[in-house]
Amino acid sequence: MQDWKTLQEKVEHLSRELAEIKKTIATSKGDTDEEKSARKLIEVRNLHKYYKEVRAVDGVSFDVYEGEIFGMVGPNGAGKTTTIECIEGLRKPHKGSISVLGLKPWRDGHALRLKIGMQLQEGNLFYRITVKEAFKLYATFYPQPASWREMLKKFGLEDKQDVYYEKLSGGLKQRLTIALALMGKPRIVFFDELTTGLDPQARRNMWDLIREIRARGTTVFLTTHSMEEAEELCDRVCIIEKGKIVALDKPEVLIQSLQLENKVIFSATEAITAEMFGNLPGVSKVEKTEERIIIYGNSRELLTALIQTAETQAIPLADLQIKQPTLEDVYLTLTGRDYRD
Hints:
Helices cover 37% and strands 25% of the residues. The chain folds into 2 domains: 41-256, P-loop containing nucleotide triphosphate hydrolases (Rossmann fold, 3-Layer(aba) Sandwich); 260-331, 2-Layer Sandwich (Alpha-Beta Plaits). It is α/β, with parallel strands linked by helices. The chain has a 6-stranded mixed sheet with strand order 5-6-7-3-8-9, with helices on both faces. The radius of gyration is 24 Å and the shape is globular. It contains 12 helices and 13 strands.
């Protein structure tokens, strides 16, 4: 027998969440131009980088502010790594300007790298170096490094200090590279595809670690091909596609601004048809696929009306799911193609 009270509570809970999100977006006050300028750590203007006929980065402009987790997200080959390497001073742009902490990365590379931390996409250490040796090595790169003993303890690597890099799990390798990127006490740290190849639990652990780093006062710039990761971690997200920025804002603002629809999904028997739900308030489309009903809409009354209809007509709402729009939906809307294409 259908537990209508439980479903009603779920509807009311979701409605409150949606209302709170809208309230937060509507009432949040942005900084003044003067305040933003004072907090600006990275400024990129009209950045171009080519590889023969390929425009890897094609006119990119954005700012990164102190204390935020800024994410650049897009599919493989979108231009994320090239952009971050230009900002770090590892690649010379063909056109445009970059300022990081008041320095020009290509001209002031040595001075800049004393103030930032970098975890590269292809940042493997020598396979026969131990964890302790890696910390000691990185400590020699900076005039006033963090204590390698304290970093061992802070990142939970004390019991691994004599283990060779090749013997570490994927998650521990990433934890080590993050710690090494912070040895110089940087104001900004760069992570390029940090969680690629990690299992779900290791990814979640990395997310917690990144939040801790920001909480300690370090600004974080990360690139990722995971829309879920960007939505979960980032204060602001820059979506890049074929070397161009297609959207840049807070994840919740990007989702809300496009007025994307929610999806209500539940299992359906052969007797249940899509036409039974087409006249519910706020419904734009109803589909029936693989023994499931999918209702698209964005009206708060939709869920209440659905439960009332189901109760009246004795329709079991088995496996009920309510899916809100995500950054992946934003990408699809803006580019017209699936993120995995």
